[in-house]
Amino acid sequence: MRYICFVIALLTMCPVALSDASDNPGLIAPEYTLSVACDIRHSLMRGQARIAVSGDRELVFNVSHLSIQDVTINGKKIAFANNRDTLSIRTREEGMLEILYEGIFRPSGAAQERDEIIDDVISEQGISLTGIWYPRPEGLMTYRLTALLPAGYEAISEAEIISSTMKAGMKELTFLFNHPLDHLTFIASNRYKVLRDKAGAVDLYAYFFEEDLGLAKQYIERTKGYLDLYNKMIGPYPYRRFSIVENILPTGYSMPTFTLLGRDVVKLPFIVETSLGHEILHQWFGNSVYIDYEKGNWAEGLTTYLADYLYEEQKGKGTDYRKQIMIDYQSYVTNDNVFPLREFRERTDFSSKTIGYGKAAMLCHMLRKELGDDRFYKILGDFVKKNSFRKAAWSDLASAFESASGADLKDIFTQWLDRTIIPELRAGRAVVRQKAEGYETSFSLTQTGGPFDLTVPITVYAAGNRETIPRKVDKMDNTLTLYSRDLPEKIVIDEDYDVMRRLSREEFPPVIARFIDDKRVVLGLPASKNTVYEKIIDAFNKKGAAIKETTAITDADLRNSSFIITGDDNPLLERFRGLIRKDTASGGFTVSVTENPFNPDKVIARISAESKQEADAAFSKIFHYGKYSRLVFSGGKNKLKETDPSKRGLIMELEAEAPAVHLPDVKSLSQVIDNVRDKRIVYVGEEHTNYAHHAVQLEVIKGLLGKDRKIAIGMEMFQIPYQAVLDDYVSGAIDRKTFLKKTEYFNRWRFDYELYQPIIDFARENRIPVIALNIEREIVDLVSKNGIDALTADLKAKVPPDMDFSDEQYRERLKKVFSEHTSLKDSNFDFFFESQILWDETMSQSADRYLSAHSDSRMVILAGSGHLMFGSGIPKRTFRRNGLSYAVILSDADLDKEVADYVVFPRHIEGAKPVRMMVLLNEEKEKVTITGFPENSISKKAGLEEKDVILFIDNVSITSIDDIKIYLLEKKKGDTIRVKVLRKTGVEKEGQMEFEIVL
User: Which of 21, 291, 308, 867 allows an S-S link to 873, with CB 3.0 to 4.6 Å?
Assistant: First the structure.
């Protein structure tokens, strides 16, 4: 059946130039008259537009895809210029301008004979005209519509009064709206059922399709609640009626007097909980106070704050919402897509939404915190009264706050509206001092990227109480002092996220949003060449991700990129083994995100699918789950969504209260050994030159051997290529001289062998395996100087594939060590850090390999305390690999609760002092040459000189420095040795000389 829809707009007023109302808001807006006829079956509209004009001027209309047929003034044809998007008309007299036009508005997916728009629709399913469906003039206009529709049709447009009569079987509806508008919409359908109600003096209507009418009452009831909320908060609802209108298109719009929600949208359960209130609030912000888009869209952020955010705040989840704004900002907004808040017009992608909605909402929150609820809401109410039915800009909102509060807020608004950065706060170590009857806490708080004028909440925890104190922070470097009656236990900066800022690493969880818009993403291809991940690979390729085989991924990629690992057979899983989450939940499609251990600013996303169908059904949906770290889908439906926990606020490191030990609880070393006997790994730390520490290590080995014969000793001091030599020595196959010579001990470790000899001899006597844990010194030195990427392919093959760089506290401790060593002042800390992680990971991997191959054995690991404290170096890395139980024993360490499981304080021991010749030596081409002498050298006193080449000691041939050190191991203080040297006695003459030295 063919329906013809007639829409006639009638209004008689004095002619006013088109620009007057927009340039001078106090003047009456020009009126606009429309007459349209719609051929519904063919989606065709023919229309006549009429507007009163005066004077010699250029008029411009947006006509988009409309076809302009004729233009007249007072019935006389005039010339016009019509391109694809605009219609330009030059008027030279006063009178009535008439425009005849046509437009085709087919539903999406219909056959298109020419390039026509599909945002607007005329179809037998309904009419939805929200775009350019008539020649749209610039500036504000006053519209009044009368619509002639077939019987059974209901229609809605911007109106406070809608009346209807029947004429010759047709339904005539009149829409009255006595306020200027910048755009007119028209919605109609013969499927609408209308539910009516009232909220005080406001008439409520729900235009729903019959199949969804059951939802209408719920929408009406929630609308009453929202109107009551905002009436009390910011003043009376600005109109006499409000309608909720179901649309055939997937819209979510708010227009003056109604909201237009798509038929799929209204069925979503969360719409009445959030989006409905958001659209109702737009009746104040955007639909009565209009947006001056050329000067920025202020309304979305303000509406988001007083709707979406407020509803979460009412549930006690305001802190979580504010933190999520900052997570989104840090995830989506980059140097490539950032822009000032003042330039926000509309949401086009995740980053623009985060700026225009999220950052603006946080500006509103900071103003509310600064001024208090009563003043904040009163100012907004006054802003609405003053600016109703005119376009307002950010400057109008700022002026309202400044004039009402009496405060100069210009700089506050400017810093948030015009700067593209947001502040980043960093806290220094807090120092607590006793002050009178309480405590004074001082600390530094720095800003990076240029100072903002901020009010930062500082929360002090003391004696079970929590007190939050606001402090002004307006410089790059700020020193703050707080007073508390009780000794503070913890101080947290901006714990409730009241300040828009960049989050610290500990506050920033690994979430899906962090790789969706990342400009540096590497997608690692699965090993199998199937098509399961074809859609995913193609999508990220179009987004600019680097698509690589695992063999093509460099260490620079690992440090600089986020990763997407597709498939359970992906070789990257082995490279990151133990560092990324293992999927345990079942589902057809899973996504899990972990922090990139090589760069905490980046993430690793693991994507796994049972089939191509599962991947294709779920993949496009993950972009709407950006706040989560883990997703599971089945058949395209979400079954699980989780976000990893993260810290709340910037938690400052306090100088800890002095530790105390309950002496009756102090254990003996034997009790400690008894307590750790069930652990698969026992780490025993050392200061390398402290004999007492090595004595503790030996006692632990002896004690555990007495309880379990199946133990091994892992030693930092020996390097992996020399494992066979260690095995030969422990088994008795070679002597000590051969052992030390072949392991190159004195060249590779350099600390006196006497420190370790009792442990090695005990292992040899009891046939305890000694495991070389360390990587070659040459590799560590190369990495320390030039980084891992400088290694050759052969050397890189020796680097553990799954190194974890994510322990930020360990990094800071190493940075402190680095800064205290003057010998490293010209070195690169990042390379130094890489070398230390390489050292730790290699030792961890070596221990794990032995224990994996000897499942019935346990291991005692001997290493420098720096590799063991807080578990950062070796222990946690080995646990990551195998999950085996462990304990850490340190000697003479600070009594920090987390430094180790046990701290031993051994009595001082004077170990065996090695005898020395007291010479400085150089080794080259199997010649050992004296290069100098320390003070009071016994060799110099005996007659040795610089440049002497040592040939023999007691008839033992010397070809290396190791030969000397090994031979002297057999000597003790007071022994006499004979040293034969080669010395130049004249020009080009050499002679051998022999000297006796008393050691």
Answer: 867
**How many Å apart are CA 694 and CA 689, to the nearest integer?**
9
Rounded to 5°, the CA angle 776-858-675 comes to 120
The H or E element that residue 4 is part of is strand 4-8
Whether the Cβ atoms of residue 115 and residue 73 lie closer than 8 Å to each other:
no
Please give the pLDDT value at position 487.
87
Average pLDDT across each block of 10 residues of the chain; the chain has 999 residues. List them in order: 36 37 50 85 90 88 92 92 88 91 80 49 93 90 87 93 89 89 93 96 96 95 98 96 95 94 93 95 97 96 98 97 97 94 95 97 96 95 95 94 80 92 91 85 89 94 91 93 89 96 95 92 85 93 91 83 90 72 72 88 93 94 94 94 95 72 81 93 95 94 88 96 97 95 91 93 96 95 88 89 83 86 76 93 96 95 96 95 95 87 89 88 93 94 95 94 92 93 83 93
- The full DSSP string for 461-529 is EETTEEEEEEEEE-SSEEEEEEEESS-EEEEEESTT--S--BPPGGG----THHHHS-SSEEEEPPSS-
What was the pLDDT predicted at 796? 87
Other CB atoms within 10 Å distance of the CB of residue 647: 15
The residue length of the chain stands at 999
What are the distances in angstroms from CA 660 to CA 520, 653, 656, 895, 898? 50, 19, 12, 9, 15
Do 755 and 694 meet the contact criterion of CB atoms below 8 Å apart? yes
Q: What is the pLDDT of residue 888?
A: 97
Here the tokens at position 973 are: 């203080």
Q: What is the sign of the dihedral through the CA atoms of 968, 969, 973 and 977?
A: negative
3-state secondary structure of 268: coil
CA nearest neighbour of 123 among 253, 3, 261:
3
| 97, 51 Cβ separation under 8 angstroms | yes
pTM score: 0.78
Spell out the domains of the chain, with CATH numbers in brackets.
1-189 (2.60.40.1730), 290-418 (1.10.390.10), 424-503 (2.60.40.1840), 507-642 (3.30.379), 689-864 (no CATH), 920-998 (2.30.42.10)
Give the H/E segment covering residue 792: none
Nearest to 218 by CA among 259, 131, 276: 276
* Whole-angstrom distance, CA of residue 747 vs CA of residue 896: 35
Element (H, E) at 932: strand 927-932
Whether 308 and 278 have beta carbons less than 8 Å apart is answered as yes
* Of the candidates 8, 27, 25, 26, the residue with the CA atom closest to the CA atom of residue 16: 27
In contact, 931 and 924? CB cutoff 8 Å = no
DSSP labels, 58-85: EEEEE-TT-EEEEEEETTEE--EEE-SS
Closest C-alpha among 833, 839, 848 to residue 779: 839
Question: Which residue is associated with the tokens 């909605």?
Answer: 357
Task: Name the token pair of 140.
Answer: 């504000």
State how far the Cα of 559 lies from the Cα of 577, in Å rounded to an integer.
16
What H or E segment, with its residue span, contains residue 579? none
Residue 477 φ then ψ, to 5°: -120, 120
- Residue 915: which H helix or E strand, with range? none
